[in-house]
From TrEMBL:
Name of the coding gene: folD
Protein name: Bifunctional protein FolD
Family according to the record: Belongs to the tetrahydrofolate dehydrogenase/cyclohydrolase family.
Binding positions for NADP(+) per the UniProt entry: G161, R162, S163, I227
Domain Tetrahydrofolate dehydrogenase/cyclohydrolase catalytic: 5-116
Pathway participation: One-carbon metabolism; tetrahydrofolate interconversion
Alphabetized GO MF terms: methenyltetrahydrofolate cyclohydrolase activity; methylenetetrahydrofolate dehydrogenase (NADP+) activity
Assembly behavior: Homodimer.
GO biological process, one term: L-histidine biosynthetic process
Length: 277
C-alpha cells in the first residue's frame, strides 16, 4: 500500500491554525473575489473559498460582474479594492472571457494584495527565487510535500502541464527548492519514459486519468492537481485506482491538492494582512 497524501486533513490543520491567529486580531482580514460571468465551476470554487473564509473568521467579499463588462470597468473595480484599506487580498477568479486582456487585468491588482501570486511582479519574484506570494495551488503542493517530509532537493521532478496558473509556477517553486525539474506538455515526446524516470511527478493537465500505470514506476511520489467533472464525479489526471499500489505516495482527487489550494490562499491572505499592518 502506498502512502496517501491527505490534503483534507492538512487543510483542516491549517484551518485551525488560521482561525486561532485571526481570532486574536482586532480587524479581520478581507479577501475580495472578482468573478466575471457565472461559470458553474467557478461558482463551486468560489463557494469553497467563501466557506473556508467563514470558518476561519476572515471576510470574503464576492463581486460577481456581468459577462459583457468592459475592460475599463473591470479594472476600475480592481482599483476600488486596491484603494480600500480594509481589503487585504484580491483574486480574479479564472477563467475570464477571452475578449478581456487577462494579463492587463491581473496586473491591475496591487502586488501587495496579489494573494494568488499572479501579477507580473509576483511571478518575477518567483523566477528570481524570493517569492512575495506563491500562487495558491503551487504553495499547496509544496506544503503537502513538506508536511509529509518529502524533500524535493536533488530529486528529479516531472511537472506535466505548463500553464501560467499552475504548471509553470509549480515547476519554478520546486526548482527553488533545488529539484531538477522537467516540464512536459502536449508536444512532449515519449511522455511515458519521462514520467517513469521521475522521483516526483506533479500533474496538472485537466486530462482525466492521463497518467496510467504505464507512466509510473515504484518508489515515486505523485501529486495530482487535475480536477475534471466526469459523470458528476471529480476525477484527477491520474488513474488513481490502478496506480496507487504501484508507487510510494500519491495524492487523491478529491482530497489532495484541491483542499490545499484553498488553505494556501488564506495563508497568503493572512500574510498580506500582516505585511500591510
Ligand atoms: P490549462 O491551462 O488547460 O493547462 C493544461 C496544461 O496541460 C497545458 O500546459 C497543456 O499543454 C498540458 N496538457 C494537456 N494535455 C496534455 C497531454 N496529453 N500531455 C501532456 N500535457 C498535456 O489548465 P490549468 O489551469 O493548468 O489546470 C490544469 C488542471 O488542474 C485542471 O484540471 C484544473 O481544473 C486543475 N486545477 C486544480 C486546482 C486545484 O486547486 N487542485 C487549481 C487550478 C487548476 P500545452 O501547454 O502544450 O497545451
Amino acid at each position: 500500500m502506498s502512502q496517501i497524501l491527505d490534503g483534507k486533513a492538512l487543510r483542516d490543520e491549517i484551518l485551525d491554525d488560521l482561525k486561532n491567529q485571526i481570532s486574536k486580531l482586532d480587524q479581520k482580514p478581507e479577501l475580495v473575489i472578482i468573478q466575471v460571468g457565472d461559470l458553474a465551476e467557478s461558482n463551486t470554487y468560489i463557494e469553497q473559498k467563501i466557506k473556508f473564509g467563514e470558518k476561519i473568521g476572515a471576510i470574503v467579499t464576492h463581486k460577481k460582474l456581468p459577462l459583457d463588462i468592459a475592460e475599463s470597468e473591470l479594472i476600475r473595480e480592481i482599483q476600488l479594492a486596491n484603494d480600500d484599506e480594509n481589503v487585504n487580498g484580491i483574486i480574479i477568479q479564472l477563467p475570464i472571457p477571452q475578449s478581456l486582456n487577462k494579463e492587463k487585468i491581473i496586473d491591475s491588482i496591487s502586488p501587495q494584495k496579489d494573494v494568488d501570486g499572479q501579477t507580473a511582479i509576483s511571478i518575477k519574484s518567483l523566477v528570481v527565487g524570493s517569492p512575495t506570494f506563491i500562487p495558491a495551488t503551487t504553495k499547496g503542493v509544496i506544503t503537502l510535500l513538506d508536511a509529509n517530509k518529502i524533500d524535493p532537493s536533488g530529486k528529479h521532478v516531472v511537472v506535466v502541464g505548463r500553464s501560467t496558473l499552475v504548471g509553470k509556477p509549480t515547476a519554478l517553486a520546486l526548482l527553488n527548492r533545488d529539484a531538477t525539474v522537467t516540464i512536459a506538455h502536449k508536444k512532449t515526446q515519449n511522455l511515458q519514459a519521462i514520467t517513469k524516470s521521475a522521483d516526483i511527478i506533479v500533474v496538472a493537465t485537466g486530462k482525466p486519468k492521463l497518467i496510467t500505470k504505464d507512466y509510473v514506476s515504484e518508489n515515486q511520489i505523485i501529486i495530482d492537481i487535475g480536477i475534471t467533472v466526469v459523470d458528476g464525479k471529480l476525477v484527477g489526471d491520474v488513474d488513481f485506482e490502478n496506480v496507487k499500489d504501484l508507487v510510494a505516495a500519491i495524492s487523491p482527487v478529491p482530497g489532495g491538492a484541491g483542499p490545499m489550494t484553498v488553505a494556501s490562499l488564506f495563508q497568503n491572505l493572512l500574510e498580506a494582512y500582516q505585511k500591510q499592518s
